[in-house]
Each structure stands twice: as structure tokens, then as C-alpha cells.
Amino acid sequence: MSLRDSLRDFDPDLAASPVQALRVDVSGSEAEVPVHRHRKGQLVLALHGGVTCEVPEALWIVPPHCAVWIPGGMPHSNRATANAQVYFLFVDPEAATLPAECCTLSITPMLREMIRHLAGLPPDYPADGPTARLAGVLLEELARMPVERLHLPISWEPRLRRLAKALADDPSDRSTLAQWADRLAMSERSLARLLVRETGLTFGRWRQQLHLVVALGKLAAGASVQQVSAALGYESVTAFITMFKKALGKPPAKYFASIAS
Q: Which member of 58, 61, 160, 243 has the greatest number of CB atoms within 10 A?
């Protein structure tokens, strides 16, 4: 089942309940829901596999047991790996004070189980019943969750979109900034300035963040550290693990073990 099939007849804005949850099990090939928007904010939680969310000017990765928060009204698309189990939590803007910007949130086991339980209940429920009380506690916990830095800033600038697409298609490409500038018919200095102006990052930091986003998606989909290291063009597994640990504080195995506990 694809994400498109699962959400074809589902409109979160039609439900009167301020909070509702939906479970989607994806099988077959990788699938994508095209760009859309709705009034309610959306939390995207992946318990298995990986999900990537694209919003204006950024890509966000959803590794297992973390979630991406997308504020209401923001255009976005979701792409899931073939083995993904995804939960969507839709929140009315007036139901809770949640971030006004897109962000990645850590999710505690308790909050994860509340979302799973709510997904098994009817979307319309009495405002004074047990489901409404569960939803209230869920929103209180959600507002307390820490933010993770797991996104890739991108730009609508045509040359940077071309660069981003090329590196996303082949993240093992180790071309220098000067080589990329030549391909884009720019000077090295002009490309360096454009990247900082549009993304806030130098070329080296931006490419490292792209590698982190790609690595998290591949690891969440079941690839080994060795496979991911090779796919990203690292000279050794140790070099890849060092990059990962520097960015997220833990090597891949410990990182995924910590978010699964």
C-alpha cells in the first residue's frame, strides 16, 4: 500500500476532533504523497523504515522513534521507504501551543504508545470522554519534546537546486567546491557566498548535513553501516562513524538503540 492510496480519501480538516491519529503501513516500493497542505498541523512519526518530508526550503528526515512536526497550512510532501510503518498525528492549531516552524522532535516511549493507541480509536470522539482526556495529555507531552537538528536546508535558487539534486542522486560524489562551481558556470567564491546566503552553511557543512540526512534514511530502511559508508563515498567506515558521532553525539548503533528504547 502506498502513502497516496492510504490518504486518498482522508482529509484531517473534516474531523471535528482537535486531535486525531492515523496509522499507515507501507509495502511494495518507496512511495510519495505529492505536495499538499491542510489547516491542522501534522506530526509524522516513523516506527519502522524511514520517511522524508519536504517543505519550502528544507528536507526533514524522520528516523524511527523520532517525529517531524509540520505546522498547519504549510505546503509539504512525504516520502516513505517500502518497509515503513508511519503514524500521522493531526492537531488543530487552537488545541495546543506547538512550534510555528517545521522541526524534528524526539519522542518518548510513553508518547509513542499514546499516539499508537489514539490511531486505533475513532477519529470523532466526545469532548468530555476518555479519548479526549488522552488527547489532552498527549498534547501536553508533545509540547515538552526536545528538538533534534535533522534537516537539510535547501533553496529555490535554480543553481543550488541543481546542486542539491545532483548530490542527492549521487551522495558519493566528492567533487570540490571549485569543481561544482565550474559545472554551474560560476566562480568558486560566488558559489560559496550563494550557499551561505541561501542555506546559512558553508559547502562542507551543507554536504555533511546532506550525508547525515541520507545516512539516517538508509539506516532506518535497514542498510548496514558499511553499506551506507560506501554509498556516501567515505574512505572508511571509521570516517563515516566519526562524522555521524560528531553530528548526533553517538555512533549509529547507539543512536538508533537510544531512540528505540
A: 61
Q: What confidence score (pLDDT) does residue 107 get?
A: 86
Helices (H) and strands (E) in the chain, counts: 10, 11
Q: Which amino acid is at 125?
A: Y
Domains of the chain by range and CATH?
A: 3-148 (2.60.120.280), 156-260 (1.10.10.60)
**DSSP classification of residue 146:** P
Containing 250, the helix (H) or strand (E) segment is none
Grid cell digits, residue 205: 557543512
Strand order in the sheet with 58-62: 31-36, 76-80, 51-55, 58-62, 151-153
- pLDDT higher than 80, residue 130: yes
Cell of 69: 512536526
Please provide the DSSP assignment of 21-78 as one string. Answer: EEEEE--SS-EEEEEE--SSEEEEEEEES-EEEEETTEEEEE-BTEEEEE-TT--EEE
SS3 199: helix
Looking at residues 140-159, what average pLDDT do you find?
86
| Average pLDDT value over all residues in the chain | 88
Instruction: Report the distance separating Cα 49 and Cα 243, nearest Å.
Output: 22
pLDDT, average across residues 184-213: 94
Instruction: Give the whole-angstrom CA distance, residue 8 versus residue 55.
Output: 20
Q: How far is CA 241 from the centre of its chain?
A: 21
| Dist CA 10 CA 189 (whole Å) | 48
